[in-house]
Design goal:
This protein has nine helices and 17 strands. It is an alpha+beta fold. Strands 12-17-13-14-15-16 form a six-stranded antiparallel beta sheet. Strands 6-5-4-1-7 form a five-stranded antiparallel beta sheet. Helix 3 crosses helix 4. The protein is rod-shaped and about 125 Å long. It starts with a helix and ends with a strand.
């Protein structure tokens, strides 16, 4: 009985299979078109995938043209292919990141042409490798010239220096908002401007800001060193002692007579211990010689050998010292 049932079931299976084959043969086959293939490839590429054939081909080409990936010496060829694909994917990501950084750099350069320093910055001749002797002080504003491809270094110019500073301490700004202010000047430039503003004119001479008339007189007197001695002279081609003092003080608007004796009485007497640079010193009992005290126990005068510097306390000059006079009031 069971054998008969098995035969009946087998016959039914054959009948069902034959009917299924007949139905399949009667149904038209839908073959993929070239457009279907392209759309599929494009969809895979959009999500970062390639066809298996392309991936395998590219990874094998990479293995043939490059060294083996690190730690890949004991890997199978299939594992090496996957490692190569990973490297290729990492490179694609790095290239994309570089493109995005470049876009950010260009956008920043299009919007800003200056940077404000949040702290003092060392200037590098390259992107953070070789430092220079230049430093830009905190709070200063430099011109923005370019940006390193990594976006971490700005190429700037400030005063007479140019180079790279770290982007971490920079705030992009519009340079014209600060142009003409102290933010774009070095401290030396600010001080020079202050000195120029404080400069005062005396006669035809000018005393720089931060200096004094006394110092200016001494400096100008030194410019006569080597001028030959000429009795009665009062020029750079030749001068005597009172002619020298007359020229030096006259340059700064202080009029003196030509003659040491006369000049002594134009001064306010001052003790030797109270001498200051710019005071006048006189010699001989009849006041026959005069010089300008320059400090440090020395004076400049027109000697028989020309204009020179001598020690007030040398045995000769101390022995014939007469007195001192002050022509510049403090």
């Amino acid at each position: 009985m069971s054998r008969r049932i098995c035969c009946i079931c087998l016959a039914l299976s054959v009948l069902i299979a034959a009917a299924s084959i007949a139905y399949a043969d009667s149904t038209p086959v839908s073959k993929p078109t070239e457009q279907d293939y392209r759309q599929t490839v494009a969809a895979l590429a959009e999500i970062g995938l390639q066809t298996g054939f392309n991936s395998g081909r590219d990874s094998m080409q990479r293995l043939y043209s490059h060294d083996l990936p690190k730690t890949g010496q004991e890997k199978s060829i299939t594992q090496l292919q996957f490692m190569a694909l990973d490297e290729m994917a990492a490179e694609l990501l790095a290239q994309q990141a570089a493109r995005e950084q470049l876009a950010r750099n260009l956008a920043l350069l299009a919007q800003y042409d200056g940077v404000k320093l949040g702290s003092s910055a060392t200037v590098y001749s390259d992107a953070g490798i070789t430092s220079t002797d230049d430093t830009i002080e905190s709070g200063k504003v430099a011109k923005l010239k370019d940006i390193d491809p990594t976006g971490r270094w700005y190429l700037v110019s400030f005063s007479d220096c140019s180079g790279y500073v770290s982007a971490d301490i920079c705030t992009p700004v519009t340079y014209k908002d600060y142009d003409g202010t102290d933010a774009v000047r070095t401290q030396a430039e600010i001080q020079a401007r202050s000195n120029a503003a404080a400069a005062k004119s005396f006669g035809t001479g000018v005393v720089p800001g931060g200096s004094t008339l006394r110092n200016a007189v001494v400096d100008y007197a030194y410019s006569f060193l080597g001028v030959p001695y000429v009795y009665g002279g009062a020029s750079r081609s030749g001068t005597d002692c009172s002619g020298l003092t007359m020229q030096v003080y006259g340059y700064y608007g202080i009029s003196l007579s030509h003659g040491s004796n006369l000049q002594y009485y134009q001064c306010e007497p001052v003790s030797r211990s109270a001498l200051q640079p710019g005071d006048m010193v006189f010699f001989f009992s009849d006041i026959g010689h005069v010089g300008i005290y320059v400090g440090g126990g020395q004076f400049i005068h027109a000697s028989d050998y020309g204009v020179c510097v001598a020690s007030l306390y040398s045995s000769y000059w101390i022995s014939c010292y007469y007195g001192a006079g002050r022509i510049i009031s403090d």
